[in-house]
């Protein structure tokens, strides 16, 4: 069955203020009006009958969103409209934040990366094997709680959506400690990236109606970091688990260790209880302990075709491997 995009009105603002004013002017519900950047997530979902907004506000003509800026204090600012392709090849990103460039390179395929943006990646809808399906497939399963249905097929007794956040950039940004800028009808706010996510698979962002993610602020002194993702195919696949690690060390011992995970839980998150690794040389026992700590906090549900147990173990193994690699070169 061919699925066509539903009809919609496309608005094309030239500035951030104009985009926000257009949103406010339409006086529509949140479902009826959406921002769209590269469209590589939103338009695919709409074509599958997930969402039927009457109006899309395209961010493509908003020049203010497309810059990578090196600031005088050594930090850098990424506009939310910077594409993944630009991120991969930008000299500042490659030299100073190579884990960001690496994670961007692991996203989707070359065509998607030409139009997919940083903002779209951070605001990506959550994913589930019962949700990211064609209309006829979901229809024949009576839909599900996340959209148009009454029950969750993953955990039918509950009323919570466990769809996983699966963007690849978020964990790297989290271990680097980035802040994001949000502009909306009520003004501008700057918050740690972690605060963008609610932890609810159904309504996963803390953005208020009309709010726009405009920028990502990268730190002046980033810690060395690495990212690895596990997926079914070697390309064009979302992470079944994605792990970023940032580590500083001296004389073969850990000074600080930060780990973040994507693709498993409803939100990308920072792993807790890692303080005990300061001063560790990451011997075999500590490596095992590290993997166990990560495994415990990773809680995938059956939202992919791959079993949760495997995804949890792999997340632990990737964290261990990346931490050891970083300590070797610290
Ligand atoms: C085949 C395929 C494979 C893929 N594989 C991966 C993968 O491996 N890893 C991965 O991370 N992604 C993957 N993606 C998803 C997607 O390509 C990327 O995540 C991309 O970065 C999304 O950006 P976009 O600009 O296209 O988002 P859009 O589709 O334009 O928007 C996505 C969501 O973000 C919102 N949004 C966009 N910009 C803003 C903003 N500035 N402020 C507020 N809200 C905003 C939109 O309203 C929408 O809800 C894949 C997609 C496809 C089709
Ligand atoms: S976790 Fe449940 S409610 Fe959420 S998308 Fe999957 S089946 Fe639907």
Description of the structure:
The longest helix is centred in the last third of the chain and has 21 residues, at about 310-330. Helix 10 packs across helix 11. The strands form 3 sheets. The chain has a 5-stranded antiparallel β-sheet, with helices on one face. A 4-stranded antiparallel β-sheet has the order 9-10-11-12, sandwiched between helices. A 3-stranded parallel β-sheet has the order 1-3-2, with helices on one face. The chain is α+β, with helices and mostly antiparallel strands. It has 2 domains: about 1-55, Uridine Diphospho-n-acetylenolpyruvylglucosamine Reductase, domain 2; about 70-125 and about 165-330, Enolase-like, domain 1. The protein contains 11 helices and 12 strands. Flavin-adenine dinucleotide binds near residues 38, 119, 123, 125 and 237. Flavin-adenine dinucleotide binds next to strand 2, helix 2, helix 6, helix 7 and strand 8.
How would you concisely characterize the structure shown here?
The chain has 330 residues and is an alpha+beta fold.
